[in-house]
């Protein structure tokens, strides 16, 4: 903050951001008009969506119809814990399929058009020749969730204490926790997150219902199964799902060619057994962390600690003979990346680094197993 | 059922369907492998997703964090009642933008890849030259929902009776209500819905949280606003959202060039005032109803009554000088269409009929207003 020009710019940007947040309570001028069209067409061999996994179960008698406040006929069934997946396959495939799994309180939208209307990783990876698959985590978005406990409580069959936690990140917590800046409304001078569009990120957020899920989390089996269906895929997780690829690999490594862990909440370096580390060491692993890891205090997750933990995990995997790397852009002179690195202004630059690693580690004959 | 061959085939199909439903409780062999690739590439000028509308509101103090069971700092904010929209714009536009809104307990997925893996209307309309926009209704899918009342009840601040109804259609109700056949597991002999993949439709379903929404339903303003942002769009609604285009037009007709009402739960023919009918008569309207409207008894919605009501509505609009039509495929010799007409085996044949109507009614100089 010793540079007066930068400092003034920061203050101005902060004021603009607060104005943008305030105006978001009324009609915004953003939305569709902010979305930028690419300069060249996208040519797809195929695209679409499908569901993975799920269980067909009997509805609770406490379920009430929309039309009449009556329970369903006894024994009627619904499907729960399925996982929605959208995908695009490029006309000319040049790389391995990639599965992109989103983080807490968000959906697969995280990897699509950025809050300020630029191309997201979903389309960019396709343009770079990778068939790309974007799920909504089970219990979120188009995957839906199991409402049986909710209906039981509503009907008085179960106590209120049985209601699982439904939660959202508040905008203020997001600002510091996702490292947009040191205090709400003030970005870091070199911040890469498009803070002028932070209200759009707020609009991408949905309730997080992970507490509804049974154990083990159905996302683990669904993700492993998706990789198997793809006959070999790179699994990418972010934040809440940052270590989901590791759990999927431990459940069933059959279809997993490589794993990319984007700012997980730690890598459980001391928790995995040697047997588990040996299993994980058979698949190439890349961890990615942005900038300003220790610059924000008082937030819920200390990112420096998670970074350190992932480096310790990488060391264990390497000691077990695996291929594991940390991609930390600041060491390459790339500064200012946030926790929402797939949305940052330099998101395609970061994508290129990840794509390069994927290319090196999924080449035929260059796989550990 | 007088044709013994057809009758035997029906019984066999019914048995297969029940077997498919039973097997869906365990690992299914469908999913990705059932998805069919098209024979020619899809060339897009652009694609992506964005959010329409929404309000930035203060979180309830009863909201608990994921990380610690603590309320958020006072006054933190989240966005609610926004509408997620995904879209594709073809390289060579040859028609008006179309907005496809889904029905109850479903999401925008309804218009994408069909349960048996064929091309849905979303991609087909794009291939026919229409920029196409698919929202998730506010309170559903990637649009999320407002959890404040839920959290208040969970914290004991509000009584259990404040919990809004969360509901799902049971598979058995869907079978008869959506007119797949006369009784669960038995299809009509000429049924167009791909009943062998009915378990996939069950997996597309999500909890319907419309009861969470404030009045007026935010989907009305969001849809009208989306049409305005598109500088003129055709609004298509289905079932629960079947008359949403009419409500949007009454709220703000600015961007609405035509309206397609797919099997709405009635057209409120006796409820609209003459002033409202006069306003609606300025925009071309097409209603679409499938087959077997009166063949299933004992279901919640009697489709023959809704069909009759929409014909009465059309008569009122025409009497007011408007362009309004009923597309009823059986009158064209096309039999067996279900309530999920966009997923039926002849879904592209039905799409062609609608596209033809849209073309005629959105041509420059051929608009009523």
TrEMBL record, chains A, B:
Keywords: Signal. The keyword DNA damage does not apply. Gene3D superfamilies: alpha/beta hydrolase. Residues 1-29 form the signal peptide. It comes from the Bacteria. PANTHER family: HYDROLASE ALPHA/BETA FOLD FAMILY (PTHR43194), PEROXISOMAL MEMBRANE PROTEIN LPX1 (PTHR43194:SF2). This is Pimeloyl-ACP methyl ester carboxylesterase. It comes from Deinococcus budaensis.
């Amino acid at each position: 903050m010793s540079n007066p020009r930068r400092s003034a710019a920061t203050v101005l940007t902060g004021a603009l951001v607060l104005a943008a947040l305030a105006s978001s309570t009324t009609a915004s001028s953003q939305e569709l008009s902010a979305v930028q069209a690419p300069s060249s067409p996208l040519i797809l061999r195929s695209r679409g969506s499908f569901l993975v996994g799920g269980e067909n179960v009997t509805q609770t008698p406490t379920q009430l119809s929309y039309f009449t406040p009556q329970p369903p006929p006894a024994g009627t069934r619904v499907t729960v814990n399925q996982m929605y997946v959208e995908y695009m396959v490029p006309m000319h495939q040049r790389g391995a399929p990639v599965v992109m799994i989103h983080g807490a309180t968000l959906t697969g939208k995280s990897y699509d058009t950025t809050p300020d209307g630029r191309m997201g990783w979903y389309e960019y990876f396709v343009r770079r020749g990778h068939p790309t698959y974007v799920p909504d985590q089970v219990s979120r978005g188009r995957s839906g969730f199991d409402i049986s406990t909710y209906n039981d409580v509503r009907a008085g069959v179960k106590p209120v204490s049985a209601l699982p936690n439904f939660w959202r990140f508040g905008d203020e917590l997001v600002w510091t926790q996702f490292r947009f800046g040191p205090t709400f409304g003030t970005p870091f001078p070199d911040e890469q997150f498009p803070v002028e569009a932070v209200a759009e990120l707020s609009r991408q957020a949905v309730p997080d219902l992970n507490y509804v899920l049974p154990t083990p989390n159905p996302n683990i089996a669904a993700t492993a199964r998706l990789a198997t269906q793809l006959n070999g895929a790179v699994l990418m997780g972010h934040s809440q799902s940052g270590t989901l690829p590791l759990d999927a690999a431990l459940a069933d490594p059959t279809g997993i060619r490589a794993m990319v862990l984007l700012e997980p909440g730690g890598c459980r370096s001391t928790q995995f057994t040697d047997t588990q580390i040996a299993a994980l060491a058979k698949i190439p692993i890349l961890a990615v962390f942005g900038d300003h890891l220790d610059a924000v205090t008082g937030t819920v997750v200390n990112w420096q600690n998670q970074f350190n933990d992932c480096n310790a995990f990488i060391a264990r995997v390497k000691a077990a003979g695996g291929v594991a790397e940390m991609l930390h852009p600041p060491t390459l002179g790339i500064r200012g990346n946030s926790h929402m690195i797939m949305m940052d202004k330099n998101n395609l630059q970061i994508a290129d680094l990840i794509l390069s690693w994927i290319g090196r580690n999924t080449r035929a004959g260059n796989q550990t197993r």
